[in-house]
Structures are given as C-alpha cells and as structure tokens.
C-alpha cells in the first residue's frame, strides 16, 4: 500500500514538473533530483516516472541555458534594436545615395542609358520630405493597430512590405520623380511606428530599475545607420554604384524580420524562453494588465505639461541630429572629403554614439546619490545643451582644417546619446503603461522635423554657392538655438513620478468591484 502511494506521488510530481505547475518554483531543477531519489527508495518496479523525471531535468537545464540565465529581455532588446534599425536603414539610405545619384546617373547617360531620370536639388529635398509625409499619414493607424494586435504582427508585416519597396526603389528612382515620390511616401507609412514600438517594448519588457539602459538599447536604433548602412553604402557607391545598397539592405531587413518574429513576443509571460524569475524581475511584483481594449486617456495626456516638454525636447533632438544625419554627406563634401572618407567618418560618429549611449543608460540607472528628477535634468542638459556648444564650435572652426570639424561633429553626435537618461527616460517614467503613446508620438515631431529640415536647408545653404560659409553658419546657429530653448523648457517642467493620467488609470483598474456589478443574470 505504501509503495502505491509513493508511486502515485512520484507520477503526480513528475506531471506537475512537466506541466510547469509546481506550487513553489517551476524553474527549480533540484525538484527532479528529489523525485529521482524518491523513486529509487520506492519498492515498485515501475521505472517510467524515473525516465520522465530525467528527461524533464534535461529539458529544464536546456531551457535554463537558452534562457540566458533569466536575461531573455536583453536578447529581445538587441533583436528589436536590429529590427528597427534595419527598417530605418532601408528608409534612410536615400539621404546618402542622393549625394551621388547625379554623378552616377550622368555616367550612365554617357554610356547610352538615356532613360535614367536625373534629379534636381529641389526634387531630392522633396523626396526626403515625402518620407515624413508618409510617416505622418501612417503614425496614427499604425499605433492603433499596434495597441490592438501588438507590435509582433504589425511590425513584421510592415517590415516585409518595406523590404519589398526598398528592393524596387532604384527602379523607381531611375523611372521618374513622381514614381519615386509615391515609393518614398509608402516607405514613410511603413516606418511610422518605430518609436511606438520602442515605447511598447519598454513598457512590457523593462523593469523600472532598468529603464535607462533599456531605452538606451532601444531608442538608439538610429545608430544602426553607422554600424550597417554607411560602411556598406560607402563601399558600394565607390565600387559598383549607389543602386546595390538598396538590394543589400532589403535582404538584411528580410533576415532580421524573420529572426525577430521567431524570437520576440509582445508579453514576457508568453515567451517560451522566459522563466518565472525573469517575469517577476520585469514586473517588479506588480500586477500586469492584459486587457487589449485599454483606452488611452488622450485628453489627460495632452493637458500634461511634462509630456509637452518631452515632445519639444524630442523635436529639438531629432531636428538637430538631422543636420549631419541627412546633410552630413553634403557638408563633408563641402569640406573637400571623398566618398569613402565621407561614409567612414559618418560611421565613426555612430560607433561613438553607441558607446556613449550604453554608458549613459547604465549611469542613469546606477547613480543613486542624485534624485531622479535631478538626473533627468542633468542627462537632458548633456544631450541637448552640449551639442549646441559643439555646433557653435563648428561654426568657429576654419574650413582649412576639416578634421577639426570632424572632431567637433563627432562629439556633437555622441552627446545625443545621453537622451536615453533625459527626456526618453522621463517619458517612460511619467507615462508607464502609456509609454507606447507618449514615446510613440515623438515620431510625430520627428516627421515635422523631417519636413522642416529640407526647407531650412534650401533657404539657407543651397542659395549660398558663393557665400557657402555664411550659409552653413546660419543653418547651424538656428539648430543651436532650438536645442537651447528646448532644454530650458524641459528642465523647468521635468517630472519623474507617474503623471496624473497614469495614477487615475491605475485607480480605475484597482477599483473594487461592487456587489451590484457581479450579477449572474
């Protein structure tokens, strides 16, 4: 009788272990060793529970190995960074290739290919703005779709479509301006949810104590331009022309999309590699809300001053970083540098930006001797006011020493890496579960900056063929002033605690249910 009871206990325990339903800890491999010892002491000859226990123990150890010791979230952050960066590369490569399109097309025309369209400077600038128009069109529906279905499916579909459009982009550019204009607008629509994905993934996967480094990893996806796009673009443009870079980047996007779809989940609890320990680390013991129809309190968000301070800082950050992200190739050409130097110097800024961003993210989370609000103000000042200082230095540097310009521009771009501990982190802290909206709508101001940038460039730089130095000076000083004003506004209205719309939403979710609300009729 006792032997039967022991066997039943072993079988029941093994079933619980295999189902992951232990009342203590589903991630404890010692449980299987205990089951094995019990089965050895049992008088029953049945060995199937022992085999099942050994098999379960091996599966558990294999799972622990692939779970990266409760750090799956970092794999998710890296893969999301690569995915968003791959999408951005396909959309953004035009800003590099347009500098050399006219030369390449002229050479092709001399070879007898007269059907290739040659663009004016105004048409090239309008194609940059076309992407921003598409982003404005697609941002609201994309964010709504993502809120309803999650970014896994929405971003995957958008990425495959973006890869297809990018592969046909050289054909569109060679055909006619109006064809290329339509393609660029479609690219902008497909690219419009990038910051919304950042906000969603941070709100679902990042513990509060790791918000800074998580945002450093995710919002820094623009650095993929330096790691992937520019070295490839520099080599292909110098050796085989500008067209192949579009094909290469579209293939990279397809590969990264497949990997991301297989290994990403919208909720940590749904991921097959995430352990209970890591779920508890991510949630911090808080109750997660799984309701798909949760509504965003738009009126309350739009009436919050700290949110507008975040958005203004985001606008200034993107507006100023576009100076060299979009027109850096033109400026280096103005300084007299060739294509390869142009690409690699732009790339060098990106590598430094990544390093600074990681350091800033870690410092934002690990520094404890300053209040959180003081850290937000400090990091935001470094990320906005310091670049304004370096931009003024670029204005003062003589053109005869181009590498002094390169040094200042490099530090200028690197300083933006501190924004993960400034307004980005501030956005996540004040909006919490609504980060997908507050961080996502930085995309709106990014699109506005993209629309405004070609206009300013056309007004100040293009007419300055004889007074180019004065033209670039005026162009740079406008951005330096914008950075200064935006940082001042953020320092005044910065907030580290959850905003009122978050607190009100939490109170609504935790409101006790009244007896009259539990009718069974």
UniProtKB/TrEMBL annotation:
Residue ranges, annotated region (Disordered): 1-43
Name of encoding gene: Cni-M117.1
Coiled coil: none
Protein name per the record: Major facilitator superfamily (MFS) profile domain-containing protein
Gene Ontology MF terms: transmembrane transporter activity
Pfam families documented for this protein: MFS_1
Biased composition (Low complexity): 8-22
Domain of life the protein comes from: Eukaryota
CC terms in the record's Gene Ontology section: membrane
Transmembrane helix as UniProt keyword: yes
Record's keyword terms, sorted: Membrane, Transmembrane, Transmembrane helix
UniProt subcellular location: Membrane
Major facilitator superfamily (MFS) profile domain residues: 78-497
Topology in membrane: Multi-pass membrane protein
Major subcellular site: membrane
Membrane-spanning intervals of the chain: 153-173, 179-201, 245-264, 308-328, 376-397, 403-424, 436-460, 472-493
């Amino acid at each position: 009788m006792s032997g039967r009871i022991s066997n039943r206990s072993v079988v029941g325990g093994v079933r619980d272990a295999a189902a992951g339903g232990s009342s203590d800890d589903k991630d404890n491999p010692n449980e299987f060793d205990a089951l094995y010892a019990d089965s050895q002491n049992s008088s029953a000859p049945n060995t199937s529970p022992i085999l099942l226990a050994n098999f379960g123990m091996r599966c558990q150890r294999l799972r622990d190995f692939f779970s990266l010791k409760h750090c799956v979230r970092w794999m998710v952050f890296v893969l999301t960074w690569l995915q968003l960066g791959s999408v951005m590369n396909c959309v953004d490569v035009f800003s590099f290739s347009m500098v050399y399109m006219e030369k390449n097309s002229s050479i092709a025309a001399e070879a007898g290919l007269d059907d290739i369209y040659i663009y004016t400077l105004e048409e090239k600038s309008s194609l940059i703005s076309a992407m921003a128009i598409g982003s404005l069109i697609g941002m609201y529906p994309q964010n709504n779709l993502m809120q309803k279905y999650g970014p896994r499916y929405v971003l995957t579909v958008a990425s495959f479509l973006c890869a297809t459009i990018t592969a046909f982009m050289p054909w569109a550019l060679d055909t006619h301006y109006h064809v290329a204009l339509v393609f660029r607008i479609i690219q902008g629509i497909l690219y419009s949810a990038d910051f919304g994905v950042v906000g969603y993934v941070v709100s679902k996967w990042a513990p509060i104590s790791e918000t800074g480094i998580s945002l450093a990893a995710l919002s820094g996806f623009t650095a993929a331009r330096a790691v992937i796009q520019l070295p490839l673009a520099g080599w292909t443009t110098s050796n085989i022309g500008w067209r192949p870079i579009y094909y290469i980047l579209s293939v990279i996007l397809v590969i990264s999309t497949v990997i991301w779809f297989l290994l990403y989940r919208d909720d940590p609890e749904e991921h097959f590699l995430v352990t209970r320990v890591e779920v508890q680390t991510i949630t911090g013991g808080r109750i997660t809300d799984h309701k798909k129809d949760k509504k965003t309190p738009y009126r309350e968000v739009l009436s919050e001053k700290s949110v507008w301070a975040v958005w203004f800082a985001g606008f200034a950050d993107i507006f100023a970083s576009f100076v060299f992200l979009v027109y850096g190739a033109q400026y280096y050409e103005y300084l007299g540098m060739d294509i390869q130097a142009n690409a690699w110097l732009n790339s060098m800024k990106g590598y430094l930006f990544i390093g600074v961003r990681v350091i800033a993210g870690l410092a934002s989370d690990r520094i404890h001797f300053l209040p959180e609000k003081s850290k937000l103000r400090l990091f935001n000042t470094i990320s906005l006011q310091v670049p304004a200082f370096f931009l003024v230095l670029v204005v003062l540097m003589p053109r005869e020493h181009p590498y002094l310009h390169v040094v200042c521009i490099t530090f200028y771009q690197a300083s933006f890496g501190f924004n993960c501990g400034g307004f980005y982190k501030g956005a996540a802290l004040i909006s919490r579960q609504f980060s997908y909206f507050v961080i996502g709508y930085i995309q709106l101001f990014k699109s506005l900056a993209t629309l405004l940038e070609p206009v300013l460039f056309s007004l100040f730089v293009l007419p300055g063929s004889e007074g180019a130095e004065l033209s670039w000076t005026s162009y740079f000083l406008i951005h330096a002033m914008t950075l200064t004003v935006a940082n001042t506004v953020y320092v005044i209205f910065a907030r580290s605690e959850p905003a009122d719309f978050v607190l009100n939403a939490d109170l609504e979710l935790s409101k006790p249910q009244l007896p009259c609300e539990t009718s069974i009729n």
